[in-house]
Amino acid sequence: MIRPRFVLITLLLILACNASRREISDDLSTPEASVRSYWGFLVSRDVGIAIENDDLRYITDASAQGLKQVRVEALERLKAHHYMLDNRIVSAELNTNVSATVLAVELRYRGETKPDTYKYYLTKNDGKWLIDDRLYPCPLCDGKGQVRDFSSYRTGSELTTKECEHCKGTGWRSYIHAGKS
Ligand SMILES: [Zn+2]
Predict the structure, then answer these.
(1) DSSP state, residue 52
(2) Number of structural domains, the chain?
């Protein structure tokens, strides 16, 4: 026989565990909110220090509490200084009722000083806005889609430009569909 009190305690424990794990607010109700939620996830993933690690098995309970506290504080410090916290959304436009484009300014890595413009394509499915693609400016042509054509030197004519092969002239590269764009 299952005791009601046992069921209640188990239920409360499950809820408490989920609440502490779910630090990221997953709001997918608008294209803008979805991109922000995605950033939040990336920050949390980057600073993923395991608070409850297996090493605690070898440590006394009293000392394990102290160690966990040190880890929690380290985690908060890392989160508070993550380079993605300066990301901002420039524009969010609906193309149709179910497709949207979001432009954002982001740093690509820790220590980078000049932010880049990123482009997100999103699709609405079952009430949720999900990311189809995340694009960054092509590093080879600097987002212009054209590169200098040095072969024109040989003919003695003026230096012309040609389509950038890296991005097929679009000026963008895809994070998600890398190799295809
Ligand atoms: Zn290019």
Answers:
(1) S
(2) 1
